[in-house]
Known about the structure:
Layout: H1 7-22, E1 24-27, E2 37-47, E3 50-56, E4 60-65, E5 71-74, H2 75-91, H3 103-108, E6 124-130, E7 135-145, E8 159-165, H4 171-178, H5 185-195, E9 199-205, H6 208-217, H7 221-235, H8 240-250, H9 257-261, H10 265-278, E10 295-299, E11 305-308, H11 313-323, E12 325-326, H12 331-334, E13 339-342, E14 345-351, E15 354-355
Parallel strand pairs: 1-11, 7-10
Antiparallel strand pairs: 1-2, 2-3, 2-6, 3-4, 4-5, 6-7, 8-9, 8-14, 10-11, 12-15, 13-14
Amino acid sequence: MQLFGNQMEWAKAFALLQIIGEGNICIYKDSDEGEMPYPVTQLIRNDECGTIIYHLGPSNVSIKRGNSETVEIAREECRNAAIEIFSALQTMPSKEFSVPACESILETLYFSDFSSTSTDKSDFSVLYFDPEKEITQRQEITVCQQSEWYILPANRANNLKFDILNVKFSNPESNRINRIDGDQEVRQRLTEIYRLGGKLKYTTTENKFFLENLYMIDLHFPKLLAEITRLFYTSGLSAIHEITDEIKKSNPYKIKDELICKNNFYEYKVKQFLYALTTGMRPTKRYRGYGTPRTFAIIGTNGEITILDPAQRVTFDNYLFQNTRLFIGDCQTHKFGFIEKENGQWFIKLNIAMKI
């Protein structure tokens, strides 16, 4: 059966084949000591054809599905198939595609569907030996492709509303600014607003669930996120840690320097938000503050797979903080970046979206 999938879906097949082929996983460490490879003994995957167990031997992998006969193939075949898929990930467009050279081995592995049927929505489980603790551990893995991991995808519900102060527009003038087009159209419109003497003042979010979810982080967090968003569109910065450095200078909470410098207050608040996003916070659903943390297998641009474990909270938070970047979605699709008027007040909506 020929499988067709997008890059995110094929990344799941690549991760499974790569781990079987290499026989180990690397746990991300937030230090100079490097990532230590942990030997993998088993992988377990659930899809529409049932539960499949892959038992790794020194050179072969045994594949067992339910009561069916055990099949054994060389791990080298999985490694070669992983190379084929990774090559396709680098060259194929974002739309759906197939990898014909890997059809046979995927059938042997009973990989019949990209979607796992696990209740926790993980892609597969890994049993590995931890030499530091001298125990075998099991982790449910969710696969993400670096630079394609959208921890906050662009969505109209992500829009933040800003009043435009100190300037009144005529209708022809607002229309002229809204007609500014191109790759940097929203930033160029904001530049024009500032050139005319305008200032932005955050008022609220477009979606009430998003506002309530931000309150769960901190009652003042919506104001902080609005400042992060404004700086992204006006400063040219996109890395969240760089924007946070600028936030510390403007100090929107008006707190003491001791909290900012010694307690890393703003870094802590941003990390809380990023962690919440990875545990299920979304602008369109009510967030209770107790999302389920997942273990992520992150596929790097060189094909290496790194396991990001939320149980190692400091390391997990630091990775998110150092690697998250803001990006601009399509302003026509998500209805932001245009000067609008309501009850005599001019305003503009800006969209917040983030990926690793």
